[in-house]
Amino acid sequence: MSQLTINDVAVGDDLPVMAKNASRAQLFLYSAASFNPHRIHYDREYAALEGHPDVLVHGPLQGSWLTQFLTDWIGPKGRLRNLTWQNRASAFPEQDLEFRGRITGVDPATGEVELEVWEQTAEGQILMPGTATVSLPVAG
Known about the structure:
This protein is an alpha+beta fold and 140 residues long. Helices cover 23% and strands 29% of the residues. Strands 1-3-4-5-2 form a five-stranded antiparallel beta sheet, covered by helices on one side. A hairpin with a 4-residue loop joins β3 and β4 (112-121). It starts with 17 loop residues before the first strand and ends in a 5-residue tail after the last strand.
């Protein structure tokens, strides 16, 4: 894959969709790796006691995926300058999730690109809206 440059993007462009689907084993392992003992992420019966229909995908794991979505898109010479998001709804294991984005601003002189980004279910429910700023190489 060639390196994306500022000349390759325009306001209104959609980013290629990235799909994820967390397994129950992945959630258990992420809990262990992140030292997160909260049982809502790996114990279905306990999650039900707290009012959840199933165990929940970790918010920080979803944030990591959103970061991956952007860094994969910008390539090795691009830079992720800023990323914000809010977890507004729960994601569940074995659920197809889509990471999407749209360009909202481009500065050809500096290579800076503003984006609206989000995670949604395959049915279109937005779980995690956010914004990002990236820098792309200026072709010259």
